[in-house]
Design brief:
The chain is 41% helix and 14% strand. It is built from 22 helices and 16 strands. The protein is elongated and about 100 Å long. The model has no long low-confidence stretch (mean pLDDT 89).
Length: 481
């Protein structure tokens, strides 16, 4: 049973512990037990998380520096898991005052007046997290505090009395984690106000110089591009943030896919009826990897993991829409369904000048095409590497089919049976797919057949056109003749 008064708390043997010592203590226990504390953060197991653990063991303030969509805020919020479940505080105190080390004038007066009968309440770790998005309009009053004339009038106090102060977010985060997102967006004069709080523990509010040894673990997040575009972190402030931890995007498509599937929000009906094969989902992840490497996309801005998550949700919804139109109970993603994810791509990539000239729609389609070709070349012979006379062209029969004035039209809402029938009509398509498919991949034969057609279009062996209802393939020379 938890203590209800200061006397009971003393009798229990409780000893005050700073929040950074608390984080260190609980991290040590987790490491010894092999217990993870960053559940849901994937791909950082050997890079970012060890750096974070070292920073916590060193009792450092932390800056997460990385491009958008690299789980910086997620990691900051998960640090709450390293706090004690409950800590005692003076009941009703405005600064979460420790009963054995009261900080505010209000709490000190209560302890002085009531002694061991001072009431104690208990603060849950979920209430010990404070987050502020740095914006240019943030003021000193917001973060530190200001004189409150209404409080002065109600309490009949002169402005010379420190009890007229209304404390801001930072003092009220005493004994808490305090996170400032997008730190460079904070005006330099506001950043200056953090100097003493981070190191000396002094604050000045409207002429009051108050010694407040605040017990706060600061976590900051920033995008490195912000140093030149929207603002900068001033050097003296960076000097006071002891650990700067660099984040990164997933290094493999498999890790990226785990993140996407864990973060995508699907309706129950979608999860029950829509099938996204692994190789199709990996193809989707390849789009983000292509975007990060593309000369048309601003690499300094980054390509967020939210692109893949939104694209995955759109892919599922594209399949669901087709199922509903065709009165089908089950549906599987197709390559053509990726045209339904283009709206999830265009809004999440920052283009350089050349990309702007092309247009976001065209860039998104080119990224999709590059991903299709990259994935195709992992399983099938490269059509560009085949030399005439050296070997038999494995795509000769397919090219002959289209050169004979034949075409393939694949509307996005085509029923499954008709979709299969149209692909099977393309001579040689099934044979080349059968040559590379494993027995486990047999149910996805038609998806690989469609992949081959799209890839041959990317290699300029077929002509592909986007029509109002779907995609149209034909011989590339047909327009000339």
């Amino acid at each position: 049973m938890r203590a209800a008064t200061l006397g009971e708390l003393k009798a229990s043997g409780y000893q005050p512990l700073s929040i950074r010592d608390e984080l260190r203590k609980n991290l040590r226990a987790n490491l010894q037990e092999g217990k993870p504390f960053m559940d849901g953060v994937l791909g950082f197991e050997h890079t970012v998380i060890p750096d974070l653990e070292r920073a916590i063991l060193s009792r450092h303030h932390i800056l997460f520096l990385g491009l958008r969509g690299q789980a910086k805020t997620r990691m900051a919020r998960l640090l709450v898991n390293l706090l004690d479940e409950y800590i005692p505080m003076v009941a009703g105190a405005e600064l979460n005052d420790d009963p054995l080390a009261p900080l505010s004038r209000q709490a000190r007066d209560m302890v002085k007046e009531m002694g061991d009968k001072t009431p104690v309440s208990w603060l849950h770790r979920s209430e010990r997290y404070v987050e502020k998005l740095a914006t240019p309009d943030v003021t000193i009053a917001d973060l530190i505090g200001d004189v409150d004339p209404i409080k002065a009038a109600n309490l009949k106090l002169p402005y010379a009395d420190e009890r007229v102060i209304h404390f801001g977010l930072i003092p009220r985060a005493h004994r808490c984690l305090f996170v400032i997102n997008e730190l460079p967006d904070l005006q330099p004069r506001i950043q200056v106000a953090l100097f003493n709080i981070l190191q000396e523990g002094d604050v000045q509010i409207r002429g009051f110089k108050i010694r407040l040894p605040l017990d706060i673990a600061f976590v900051f997040t920033a995008n490195p591009e912000d140093y030149t575009h929207r603002g900068s972190i001033i050097t003296p402030l960076k000097d006071r943030i002891q650990s700067q931890i660099l984040t990164h995007y997933p290094k493999s498509a498999e890790t990226a896919l785990k993140i996407t599937r864990s973060e995508a929000r699907l309706a129950r009906e979608q999860a029950d009826s829509v099938v996204i094969p692994d190789f199709v989902a990996l193809l989707l992840e390849e789009i983000a990897f292509q975007a990060r490497a593309s000369e048309l996309v601003d690499s300094k801005s980054g390509v967020s993991a939210r692109l893949s998550i939104s694209a995955y949700e759109n892919l599922v919804s594209t399949v669901e829409r087709r199922m509903l139109l065709n009165h089908e109970t089950q549906g599987m993603a197709r390559i053509g369904d990726f045209w339904g994810v283009i709206p999830a791509i265009t809004g999440k990539i920052e283009l350089v000048y050349e990309g702007e000239q092309e247009g976001p729609q065209a860039v998104a389609i080119s990224l999709l095409g590059a991903a299709v070709k990259q994935f195709f070349l992992q399983r099938f012979p490269n059509p560009d590497a085949l030399r005439k006379g050296d070997e038999k062209d494995p795509y000769g029969t397919i090219k002959a089919f289209f050169s004979d004035a034949k075409s393939l039209e694949l509307p996005l809402d085509l029923p499954q049976s008709e979709y299969q029938r149209r692909l099977e009509k393309v001579a040689g398509l099934g044979k080349i797919v059968d040559s590379v498919l494993s027995s486990k991949e047999a149910p996805y034969k038609w998806l690989f057949m469609e992949l081959v057609v799209h890839a041959l279009a990317e290699c300029n062996l077929l002509s592909r056109e986007s029509i109002e209802i779907g995609i149209f393939f034909k011989d590339p020379l047909s327009d000339i003749f």
